[in-house]
Amino acid sequence: RDRPGTEPGLHRRLEPGFTLVELRVIVAVIGLIAAIVTLSIPEWRANIRLKSTARDVISSFQFARVEAAKRNADILVQVTAGGAGVGDCTVFIDDDPLLGGTPGDLIPNGGEAIRILDLPAGMSISSTTISPYVFNTRGIPTSGGGTVQLTNGKRRYDVVLSPAGAISLNGPV
Questions:
Q1: CA angle, corner 108, sides to 56 and 50, nearest 5?
Q2: CA–CA separation, 139 vs 136, rounded Å?
Q3: What is the pLDDT of residue 160?
């Protein structure tokens, strides 16, 4: 039977489906997209881990601020720079001789540490402007503001503590 709009006598079989060439093109495009995504996943994971670590540092500062007000004592945050997951962020109380530490030495020794954040592998604290950061009994930093720079070698985030006690995350840089 002739279809409307075609020459009489010219017949074309219309069967649903794809031709072999169309299937090959579709498989090639899907393979290309899969290869691109697969190569990007490790970088995405590293960047997500870096941002998560930066947020953990912010959480340590916020924890120190709250603990200072709650305990009615100065709370310190010691940020130790180091590469490839050897840096850390330690929140401690430095004036309790009952904890086995030395009061007033600005070092988290004995049992003075109340929270320790070890950096995961591949992360490093590239610099810190001051350390330790000291929060007074009202939760205000008496050591002034400062910046902690975290990096995974490709990207960097800056955790910024203002002199008034506001904590912010800048990046990626």
A1: 20
A2: 5
A3: 93
